[in-house]
Amino acid sequence: MIDINFELPVSKLKEALKNVHPSDIAVLFEDNAEYREKLIEAIGIRRFGEAFIYLNDDLQVRYYLKLEENKKRELLKHFELDDLKTFIELFRVSYHEEILRLLGKERREKVVKLLSYDGDTAGSISSPSFMYFDINSTVKEVTSKVIKESDDNDEIDVIFFHDDVRFVGGLRLQDLIIARESMALYDIVDENYPYAYADDLVASAVRKIRNYDVSVLPVIDDKKVLVGIITADDALDIMKEDHIDAVEGLVALHDHSDASSPLKRSMQRLPWLLMSVVLNIVIATFLTTFSDTIDSNVVLVMFQPMILGMAGNIGTQSIAVTILGLHHEKIKPMRHIRKELFIAIINSLISGLVGVLIVFGFLYLMPNDYADIDKVAMVVGISLVLSMFVSALVGVLLPFILRKLGADEKAASGPIISTVNDFAALGIYFLVATILLINM
Amino acid sequence: MIDINFELPVSKLKEALKNVHPSDIAVLFEDNAEYREKLIEAIGIRRFGEAFIYLNDDLQVRYYLKLEENKKRELLKHFELDDLKTFIELFRVSYHEEILRLLGKERREKVVKLLSYDGDTAGSISSPSFMYFDINSTVKEVTSKVIKESDDNDEIDVIFFHDDVRFVGGLRLQDLIIARESMALYDIVDENYPYAYADDLVASAVRKIRNYDVSVLPVIDDKKVLVGIITADDALDIMKEDHIDAVEGLVALHDHSDASSPLKRSMQRLPWLLMSVVLNIVIATFLTTFSDTIDSNVVLVMFQPMILGMAGNIGTQSIAVTILGLHHEKIKPMRHIRKELFIAIINSLISGLVGVLIVFGFLYLMPNDYADIDKVAMVVGISLVLSMFVSALVGVLLPFILRKLGADEKAASGPIISTVNDFAALGIYFLVATILLINM
User: Fold this and answer.
1) Where are the transmembrane segments (chains A, B) (predicted)?
2) Any idea which architecture B10-117 has in CATH?
3) What pLDDT shows up at residue A135?
């Protein structure tokens, strides 16, 4: 963390901030609300433009809206194109035009193109700053073009080539340097360089970067024309968001960000909680059908949390393992399901067996006036086995079913499913109890 | 996915596999057990060595152990140093020497160095293939050294410089290309290039790559000597593992990998499940102290799943949001806790209010012979508010407390805590019930 004394005069501040990275400038800007104007004065609008996209979303929007039009225009000028696109998407669609009209024609057209891609496609996250040359030129020509077009803002680790207009491959700068001027580009360009299509899913593009160990992945359209690149750094940001999404999905959160107001975040989490209340009333209704069994065997109530908890635990394990598999690897459905169900059977059986022994021991040792403690222990054990297995079965199959239906497999997690599992577990518990304790 | 007809003669197979990426070779090797020898014959040991590290861990170990010594030696020769280190760590420590002695002296020393770093430090994941030059040389000298030392296997997007022996900065290859031969390196090398210390945490190194948007992060030792680099691609792999760890932590899994045997994985998940059984017996014991209240108000049982479920839901939300914050951002503890508790109060109150209304409506409409349905509804409502708030409080505070104690904050999730929350929720429920229904 950087410590800056903002009481210094601007000239000294300028010196102190000279080599601070944009992302650290952003932190300073966020943390020192009272010195924001002074900070901008010290670093200049250009560097502030570079730092701006590192600010939290809320602050970006609020700060931008307060600026006068010429300041807005000035600020936007210093955004890179992909950042500009991300920035515009922070605003409601009806305001986009308002921002776009402040851009120069060329930049506006490129951003409009980026905005036109679907949100979860490779095209939408690609950056249009890349070098793209004719493969029929010479090493010497390409080298001098690289030197001429190289700009401080762009990261160019790999340059790309087309034949006619179609993408043919990539060449690492490092290989261009060691190439002799007389070499034909066709001989050194890697024609098997991996690429993604603009409408491929983001996740699949990220997986390509990871699997093929490239630092830049080119994105081409359906005519095989290069339209953008995704760098490994971009992929890191995407993975971070993705990771957060997955964990939030598991617990039915929608916005973990510290930036939005607590009240707003509270309202985002509430629907799920309330839905869960309603679902639990369905469970209560269902339980009333067993009121005779419960009335005459109140001891069953003691072990209700155990049945619910164990079914819940094994269920979330199965869901998580299945979602992780679907997300990060190409798992083979039948093999995965078979293996997971095998694990579920083993673990349910062992837990049930331990349950019987421990419940019997507990009832035997505790002073109480319940008869049939052996039968109660059996009820708990059998219910554990069955409810755990059912819960695991749901957890393993549901993500696949959702994916098959075209839905997001992550919807399999969350309070709704856990309530459904509660429902099944209690149904099994009291059904087994009714059969063993009442009818026998 | 690549489709290869393995019935083809080796010469044709060689042609078909010519441009297949190592990671795809690995998939083919995994999926076509009966053609493994033929595949190796077609691609040669060198390319097999490159593909080997993409195989699943289990297969790497099993396959390696079956090889004769000279084949082992040959295979190891084609591993990159950081991969070699990862590979060796798949084996138990007592076997490491066995592998190390098959390496040439220079490679052995470098790998031993890598193995010496703690598992979660930047040093342990760094790769020792980098270019490191004296900053007092000329652009021309450096360029010719890059050309000479450049090797197909290394990714060199950034080269690094030392003055004497200490690290002074980095220079992107792209900037080297555009530099005029007469320029002093001191003027073009970025002396603010971000770096990590070898004993920094992996997570902090990854965050640097992400925040500073660099494709390579140099790792230096405490004498400021460059000892390795971490690329953005490496960071992607680490983030993937990290992501999996976090989700597994949330559900107390330890190995989601498809690769180990189901029985082994079953045994890894079992301890938590069994611990949960035991903890639930503690809950049962606790519940017996309320047996009078339960006996005379069996209707309470109907709403027990609601209390448990709601406290559980809000608790996992709080834990997840706190762990995500601690992991991905530098959250300010007091601010985060204050905000989260505000959200918890709002959501508990609203859920409790809805609970009262819905339970009252339910009891009013359902045919039953319970008296005091207004009091029962109050008990459920008050218990919801209190138990949800307590559960959220634990979820927000525990990760901070664990971190303060030097433990992993992810331990806050998992079955133990959910059982503790169950315990608190039921205690509150039956205590409130005893006060309102029995003593009043």
Assistant:
1) 270-290, 302-326, 341-364, 376-402, 414-438
2) Alpha Horseshoe (1.25)
3) 93
